[in-house]
Write a structure and sequence with these properties.
The protein is an alpha/beta fold. The chain contains 14 helices and 15 strands.
C-alpha cells in the first residue's frame, strides 16, 4: 500500500510525532510506501528519529501545491492525526480514503480536557453540546475567556461533521471508543488499536526496580493541573510517613505548574528533583533508576503511554483509574490503581505504600509490567492497523 501520513506538525518532539516516526519505520519495514503531508513547517530541532520520507508541507507549498504534490505521489490510503486545520482533513477526505486516529477528545469536548476544574478536579462524562457552554466558565473546563470558548466550540462542531466522512476512526482504548460513539461517530467506523511499548534498548535491559536503593517514584510529562503532580507530591509525603523512610520523587518535564509543584515539595519536605525535559537517553536512565512510575492524571487519559514505556523496562505503575489507563494497567498485575473520581492524594499514597512495602509485591508487579509490554508491541499495533488500511482502500 501507499500510505500518506497526515498531521498538523512534524519534527515537534511530541507524543504524536514519536508515534508517527515509529509507525512510519514499521510500515516501511513491511514493504509499504510512506510519505507525509503536514501543515506546519518542520522545526528541525527534534530528537525524534523519522525515517527519510517524501514530505508535503502546506505552510511551505501552499494548500493547492501541497495537495497536488501528494496526489502525484498516488496514495492508496491516508492515515490522519492531530489536525488543527480541519480544512486540510476536509481536503484529504475529498481525495482519498482516510483512516483517522484520534489521540485526544477531538470533537467530543469543547476544550479537549474532558474534565472539570471547579469546585474540584474530576473527569467529565458529559456528551458535548450547547449545554457545555453554560458549564465551561463556572466549572473551569478551559481558559476563562469567552472568545476562546466560542472558538473551541465551533472547532469541535466542525470536527464532528467530519466523523462520517472518515473511512475509519481509530482510538487507543475502549474508553475512547465509547466516548466517540456517544458523541456522534458512526459505531461501525470505530476501531480500537492499543498503543505500543517502545522497543527496549540494549542498555535498558538491566532494569531491576527496587534493587536496594532508596525507593524512587518517577513522573514524566507536561506539568499542568490536569497531570496531577501536586497530588503525587502530597501522596509521596504521606507514603514516606507510612513507610517510615524517605521516598524519592523525580518529576521530569516542565510546564506552568512547575514552580508551584517545587514550592509544594519544599514545604512538605520531600526529596523531589526537577530535571526538566529529558531526552531519550535521559528518560531511559530515569526509568532505570525508578522503583515505580506514577501516572497521577486527573483528566481521563485517552491511554497513558508513559506507564507502558516504563513497563518495557520492568517498572510497574501507580495511577488514578481514569480514562483508558486501566486498559494497559491491570490492578495487582502490572501496577496499582487508585480511585479516580474524584482523585485523592491519600488513595494514591495507599497504592504507593502497598507497592513499596513488600519486595515480593514489587517483584510480581515488575514481572507483570514486562509481560504487558511484551503484549503491546509495534508489530502487534501494525498487525491491527494493516487490515483497517486494506478495508479503507476497498471503499
Amino acid at each position: 500500500m501507499r500510505i500518506l501520513l497526515a498531521t498538523e506538525g512534524i519534527d515537534e518532539a511530541g507524543g504524536v510525532d514519536t508515534y508517527l516516526a515509529a509507525v512510519a519505520c514499521g510500515l516501511l519495514s513491511r514493504g509499504h510506501s510512506v510519505a507525509a503531508l503536514h501543515h506546519n513547517s518542520a522545526a528541525g530541532s527534534t530528537s525524534v528519529r523519522w525515517p527519510p520520507l517524501q514530505r508535503f508541507c502546506v505552510d511551505e507549498l501552499g494548500s493547492a501545491k501541497a495537495f497536488a504534490a501528494a496526489e502525484a505521489w498516488r496514495p492508496t490510503v491516508c492515515f490522519s492525526h492531530n489536525m488543527n486545520a480541519l480544512a486540510i482533513d476536509a481536503g484529504l477526505v475529498s481525495r482519498w480514503p482516510v483512516v483517522k486516529m484520534m489521540h485526544g477528545y477531538f470533537g467530543t469536548c469543547v476544550s479537549g480536557q474532558k474534565s472539570f476544574g471547579f469546585p474540584h478536579r474530576e473527569p467529565c462524562h458529559r456528551q458535548v453540546g450547547a449545554a457545555c457552554l453554560a458549564l465551561y466558565l463556572p466549572r473551569g473546563c478551559g481558559q476563562r475567556r469567552p472568545a476562546v470558548m466560542l472558538r473551541q466550540f465551533a472547532w469541535a462542531r466542525e470536527q464532528r461533521t467530519l466523523y462520517p466522512k472518515y473511512s475509519s476512526i481509530v482510538v487507543a482504548s475502549q474508553h475512547m471508543r465509547s466516548e466517540f460513539e456517544r458523541n456522534g461517530a458512526p459505531p461501525g467506523s470505530l476501531r480500537v488499536v492499543p498503543l505500543f511499548a517502545p522497543a527496549v534498548r540494549a542498555e535498558s535491559t538491566d532494569s531491576a526496580p527496587g534493587r536496594g536503593e532508596t525507593p524512587s517514584v518517577l513522573f514524566l510529562g507536561r506539568m499542568t493541573r490536569l497531570k496531577g503532580g501536586d497530588l503525587l507530591i502530597e501522596a509521596i509525603a504521606q507514603a514516606s510517613r507510612r513507610l517510615c523512610r524517605a521516598v524519592r520523587l523525580t518529576l521530569g518535564g516542565d510546564g506552568p505548574e512547575r514552580e508551584r509543584w517545587q514550592a509544594l515539595a519544599m514545604r512538605l519536605g520531600i526529596d523531589a528533583r526537577f530535571p526538566g525535559w529529558l531526552d531519550e537517553a535521559g528518560r531511559d536512565a530515569a526509568i532505570r533508576r525508578a522503583t515505580l512510575v506514577a501516572v497521577p492524571s486527573v483528566w481521563p487519559e485517552p491511554f497513558g503511554l508513559t506507564g507502558l514505556e516504563a513497563a518495557s523496562m520492568g517498572v510497574p505503575a501507580v495511577a488514578f483509574d481514569v480514562g483508558g489507563v486501566r486498559e494497559w494497567l491491570t490492578h495487582g498485575d502490572n501496577g496499582l490503581l487508585a480511585p479516580g473520581s474524584p482523585p485523592d492524594a491519600s488513595a494514591l499514597a495507599d497504592a504507593i505504600t502497598r507497592a513499596l512495602s513488600d519486595p515480593s509485591t514489587l517483584a510480581r508487579l515488575s514481572d507483570g509490567a514486562r509481560r504487558k509490554a511484551a503484549e503491546l508491541t509495534l508489530d502487534s499495533h501494525l498487525d491491527r492497523l494493516e487490515p483497517i488500511f486494506r478495508d479503507a482502500c476497498k471503499d
